[in-house]
């Protein structure tokens, strides 16, 4: 039987590309630039599986073509709001993602941002490299204490829980949680967390707020100007989820006016474009979408995609099927 034809839309860790090529007829995007709408639409006619990432915008218009050959979109990443899942379903195309394997590293990065923003690490490093450090003094770059503070977590899935674990057991933080559904008492108990009903109840009680909910239309601008107004003065917002969850203009304004203490972002609404207002915003730490960017995790994500594909083409339900 012919091996399934698969397209990997960006370069992946070599170990995974090599392994995939042992089982599948693999086409690589050697240029490693994001595929446009036309290239994605053509791919749907030419490949049995497409292995996209967050840089591939697979909206309804991409599916608007005759003779679709693709049977599965095996996404490299846990978030899949860049894929119109309903449109894929409409064409009987399965969609999978890669949960679990990136929870630790994404949580590590959320803590990195929290510490960097609160302890003004970005500012300090920039000053030092610019030769602007005149030496130790009691009033230099005074930040905010993280240990013992209250952390609000919006979205208490695997990554949110991994953040709570680090924050509570590592930094003695009190954990408040807001989640769409009720969290099991034993899960909350692991970090002594309390669940609140609504985001509006959580924000005024937290020194730090970290976002771990899905992106997509339903959560677009979940944190907007009104909600920045509900945060404690001096509190910090951390976003390692999806850019669209935060209204970037409202964040820039809240920072500029000193309504919140600072923020740390790893994701943006129109990556890789960063609005000028954010570039200029004080006390904002920005990283270029590095949440899962460790060798161990990026390889594990690739092997997880491979497991999903092997199951799918063997007629089994892939364990990470989301549609
Ligand atoms: C994820 O896994 O969702 C990362 O943000 C990359 O897409």
Question: How does this model look, in words?
Answer:
α6 links the parallel β6 (150-154) and β7 (174-178). Helix content is 35%, strand content 14%. It has helices at 14-23, 37-46, 85-90, 103-118, 121-129, 158-171, 185-189, 199-202, 225-230, 248-256, 276-279, 295-313, and strands at residues 5-8, 25-28, 49-51, 72-74, 94-96, 150-154, 174-178, 194-195, 208-211, 236-239, 262-265, 284-286. The strands form two sheets. Strands 8-7-6-9-10-11-12 form a seven-stranded parallel beta sheet, with helices on one face. A five-stranded parallel beta sheet has the order 2-1-3-4-5, sandwiched between helices. α1 (14-23) runs parallel beside α12 and α4 (103-118) crosses α6. It has 323 residues and is α/β, with parallel strands linked by helices. The protein folds into two domains: 5-101 and 295-313, NAD(P)-binding Rossmann-like Domain (Rossmann fold); 103-286, Rossmann fold. The protein contains twelve helices and twelve strands. 41% of the residues are buried. The structure holds (2R)-2,3-dihydroxypropanoic acid. (2R)-2,3-dihydroxypropanoic acid is lined by residues 53-54, 77-79, 102, 291-292. Residues 53-54, 77-79, 102, 291-292 line the site of (2R)-2,3-dihydroxypropanoic acid.
Question: Which helices and strands, and how do they pair?
Answer:
Layout: E1 5-8, H1 14-23, E2 25-28, H2 37-46, E3 49-51, E4 72-74, H3 85-90, E5 94-96, H4 103-118, H5 121-129, E6 150-154, H6 158-171, E7 174-178, H7 185-189, E8 194-195, H8 199-202, E9 208-211, H9 225-230, E10 236-239, H10 248-256, E11 262-265, H11 276-279, E12 284-286, H12 295-313
Parallel strand pairs: 1-2, 1-3, 3-4, 4-5, 6-7, 6-9, 7-8, 9-10, 10-11, 11-12
Helix pairs in contact: 1-12, 4-6
Bound molecules: (2R)-2,3-dihydroxypropanoic acid (DGY).
């Amino acid at each position: 039987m012919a091996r399934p034809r698969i397209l990997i839309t960006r370069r992946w860790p070599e170990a995974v590309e090599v392994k995939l090529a042992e089982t599948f007829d693999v086409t690589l995007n050697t240029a490693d630039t994001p595929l446009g709408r036309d290239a994605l639409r053509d791919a749907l006619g030419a490949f049995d599986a497409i292995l996209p990432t967050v840089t591939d915008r697979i909206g309804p218009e991409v599916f608007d073509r005759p003779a679709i050959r693709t049977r599965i979109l095996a996404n490299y990443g846990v978030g899949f709001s860049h894929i119109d899942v309903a449109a894929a379903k409409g064409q009987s195309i399965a969609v999978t993602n890669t949960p679990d394997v990136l929870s630790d590293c994404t949580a590590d990065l959320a803590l990195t941002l929290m510490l960097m923003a609160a302890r003004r690490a970005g500012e300090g490093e920039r000053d030092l490299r610019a030769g602007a450090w005149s030496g130790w003094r009691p009033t230099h770059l005074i930040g905010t204490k993280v240990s013992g503070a209250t952390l609000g977590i919006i979205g208490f899935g695997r990554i949110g829980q991994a953040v709570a674990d680090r924050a509570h057991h590592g930094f003695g933080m009190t954990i408040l949680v807001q989640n769409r559904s009720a969290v099991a008492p034993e899960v909350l108990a692991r970090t002594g967390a309390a669940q609140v009903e609504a985001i509006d109840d959580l924000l005024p009680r937290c020194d730090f707020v970290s976002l771990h909910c899905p992106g997509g239309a339903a959560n677009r601008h979940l944190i907007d100007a009104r909600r920045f107004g509900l945060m404690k003065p001096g509190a910090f917002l951390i976003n390692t989820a999806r850019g669209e969850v935060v209204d970037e203009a409202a964040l820039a304004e809240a920072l500029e006016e000193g309504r919140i203490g600072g923020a740390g972002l790893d994701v943006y609404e129109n990556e890789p474009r960063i609005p000028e207002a954010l570039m200029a915003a004080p006390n904002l730490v920005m990283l270029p979408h590095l949440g899962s960017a460790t060798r161990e995790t990026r390889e594990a994500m690739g092997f997880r995609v491979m497991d999903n594909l092997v199951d799918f083409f063997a007629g089994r339900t892939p364990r990470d099927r989301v549609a």
